[in-house]
Model the fold of this input.
Amino acid sequence: MSKASGFQYTKTPLRFVMNYKDGGWDEGHLSSDETIVLNESACVLQYGQSVFEGLKAYRTKDGKIVCFRPDLNAKRLADSCIRMKMPPVSEEKFLEAIKAVILANEDLIPSYGEGGSLYLRPFVIGTNPVLGVKPASEYQFRVFACPVSSYFNGEAKPLNLRVSDLDRAASHGTGHIKAALNYAMSLFNISEAHELGYDENVYLDSATHTYVEETGGANILFVTKDGSIVTPKSDTILPSITRRSLLVLAKDYLGINVEERRIDIKEINGFKECALCGTASVLSPVGSIDNHGDIAKFESVGKDSVMTKLRELLLSIQYCDTKAPKGWIYEIK
Ligand code: PLP
Ligand code: COI
Done:
């Protein structure tokens, strides 16, 4: 079994590859080739026709291998494909592909207790040449795997965020799907944030720059002074599977009041705790958010914080130490 360090690409032995041509997908197969040969005018290269997913396989205490709610990743990938005018991959094929990749790279899943997992990256790209702006007619669906541990350096240290002047997602745009273009536009901004000593950017709604949306790679949660959880409600953020799950766990397992609503950036000084959530970031505590010199500070760490309790509960569900709600754990082996 491997040891994972941080969140980076490592070549693993086998990946799943399935191609779409003449109006249909082929059966797909496992391949040892980590490269893709494309025409110079492939739609993904010229017009960015690309969508992806992220999910993890966990090794449990009793040696089983499981995934967390992969049916929701399958559904979201299909939604992303439809919005980007790409042929969706069926849920059945998606689950077959992730299972095949996990089993083929089984030895690389970190041991139970190490805090690591095998990250799976399913994606679909438009592969044939186009010159005028139009969708491709040929596609590739691929799933590769990498052993990972924490996404942010030194996960124990609360994150230091800044409010961004640039936008991530337009109203009526593509913020609600997992299109590669949403990440391409954030690269300038994340680099600048890092140069200035911040870990991530907090984006506001692009129409009015008033309401909190999310960060470049995670949804955001707050805890109010009276111990309730609040999280932004918006049509232009990614519907995080982790966030949707955390709200259920907070309410049903911890008896915490949860609320999804618009959150004015001016309100955040009044909140007690803050954290980012996502497959890669799990539940990462936030220490401060700098809104152009107005710095909101949070007490998101420590044994008694709501975020610490929630993070521990989420991980214990994902590693099967605590019984999950029905249908959340997908057993691979
Ligand atoms: N928001 C963005 C922009 C993301 O890239 C991710 C990562 O997938 C998330 C939120 C979290 O989503 P999930 O919990 O489904 O991984
Ligand atoms: C994930 O959490 O799976 C993501 O895709 C986020 C990405 C920024 C690494």
In short: Residues 54, 217, 278-280 surround 2-OXO-4-methylpentanoic acid (ligand 2) (CB under 6 Å). The chain is about 20% helix and 30% strand. The two ends are 16 Å apart (CA to CA).
